[in-house]
Amino acid sequence: MTPAVTSHTPPFVMAPATAPAWTQRLGWTAASMLVLVLLWSLLAWIANSRHGPGPLTVLNVLIHEAQTGTLWLSLAATLARVAVSFTIAMLIGSMIGLALGRNDTANRFFDPWLILFLNLPALVIIALCYVWMGPWETTAITAVALNKIPSAAVQMREGTRALSRDLDEMALVYKFGWWKTLRHVTIPQLAPFFAASARSGLALVWKIVLVVEALGGHSVGVGHQIYTAFQSFDVAVILAYALAFIAVIQVIESTLLQPWQDHLNRWKR
Amino acid sequence: MNAYDPPGATPNTVLGAALHIDVKAKTFPPVAGRPHHAVLRGLTLDVEPRSFLVVTGPSGCGKSTLLNIIAGLDTDYNGTIRFAGAAPRIAFMFQSPRLLPWRTVEQNIALVLPDGDPRQARIPELLASVGLSGAETAYPERLSLGMQRRVAIARAFVLEPGLLLMDEPFVSLDDPTADALRALVLDLWRHAPTTVVFVTHDRSEAVRLATRIVQLRALNSNADLSVARDTPVTLTLAERNDPHALAALRAKVFDTP
Asked: What is the pTM of this model?
């Protein structure tokens, strides 16, 4: 047995992903956005109303808000709330999900609770939190986290239930030990569920943060700016802040979450 | 001496483990209307070191259950599994390859060894000998089933096991592929003879590989014992490549009362 390891081209290695696919996607996105902006301009021009500002008006507001610094302050405050409540919700939700996925009795008992909380309207949770806890920062964080925890728990529960018994047995026979099993067998199976939960969670959490900021009377934040603008029916400001925050979330999504999920799925056919 | 055709084979690893199997009874609890039922009873076997024990029998006679019991995966039975001396390293080739799809071929093999183990250095050689050089960094799902089985073979042998358990490891492959893998396993086994317990219901495969064939029966009455027949096989390597010798033995082992 000589190790004849060299030079023939292995037939079973995939060709690298092609660059054009990536540029093509970008092209489509650009074209699609352009059409949307044109359509928006057209509608604004037809409507010709202060309540239906065109893209240029909104852009001017955006630039003005950026120059005064209010935009950055608001984005930072809101993003911080999103980050903290998202992390807490994912942590607690995942732990509940793991526990329920592993323990049938607990799952049978707590499943109705989970369904109750899943269907509790965000507004009710927010209102009750402020009534019971008062107008503090922790209240905002708690209210947002409580909205995401049930769905994070459900997704991780499904992941835990889907764990492969076959692979567990393999790890047992080959004496992997708990750490190797966790790292190479369990976590890789749960990671896609966690990533999916994180992506949908981010989308949900930032929207709820805005509502909380508006209802909770917080003095800094995108939600506060939008609420103030709403009281004077200043649609341009509302749209400017909304678009700014969508942009921030999209950057997080496409530079962090999406690549991470792709990385997790790299082994799939 | 059990490894057949011994003169050519120089054992370069520890000898296979001697194994004493004594499964007094194994029953499955009632499931979905099916009553409590016994799968194994009174199964006592002494397996000599470096023997290639092939276990055959009809579906449901407890072949796979026996492997799981020996491997320690199934502890809910009445009886004992004993090894002469220390418990051996056990490798298991399952019916499906059971590779970690998110780890590369190389990682899948390396993972059964402790970190920094000197046997890690043998992985390239082993990959070459199972015909997988060049696929080190491929993910299992991009390989054919035959290739995945080769990875599972390499994973089992890199451990230098004292006991190798195989549960129909060549099932659902086309004949040439299965034959190539049988030859491969034999070659590896002759270079590193270890004790093998091999489950199959392919009778040709059984006579070709075995140094001993144990046929199990499905338990129908409370008096039935699991072992229906226990036959030593003394073919030389040359005879194992001779279809006539194999057919004759196959008829003798399986078709005579």
From this structure: 0.77
